[in-house]
Design the sequence.
């Protein structure tokens, strides 16, 4: 086969990247792409035009905090609305030194 053919070029390309590809082949838990991260950011990207009208810098920061809390709950397999309802009903009387008890990962363990 001639070294100038597209197939030869594809083989060369694969061989030069084999060292970086090997961990994905040896460890089945590694993902080849970042699609899951991009999917989780999709709602934020879709609404970015609306974020110009948050009202203020403080409103933008509050929205960023809310999105962070909601996505953290989702990543921990917790219903965000149920978790936020639970936290908001308890946080006023909760000791500040025990805030970890209100986190989504703790809520997921108590719900299981």
Sequence:
């Amino acid at each position: 086969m001639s070294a100038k053919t597209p197939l030869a070029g594809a083989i060369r390309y694969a061989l030069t990247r084999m060292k970086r590809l090997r961990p994905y082949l040896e460890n089945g838990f590694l993902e080849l792409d970042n699609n899951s991260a991009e999917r989780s950011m999709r709602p934020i990207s879709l609404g970015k035009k609306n974020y110009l009208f948050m009202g203020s810098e403080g409103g933008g920061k509050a929205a960023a905090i809310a999105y962070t809390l909601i996505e953290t709950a989702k990543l921990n397999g917790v219903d965000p609305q149920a978790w936020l309802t639970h936290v908001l009903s308890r946080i006023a009387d909760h000791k500040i030194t025990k805030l970890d008890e209100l986190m989504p990962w703790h809520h997921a363990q108590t719900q299981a």
Helices lie at 6-16, 18-26, 35-46, 57-75, 80-90, 104-111.
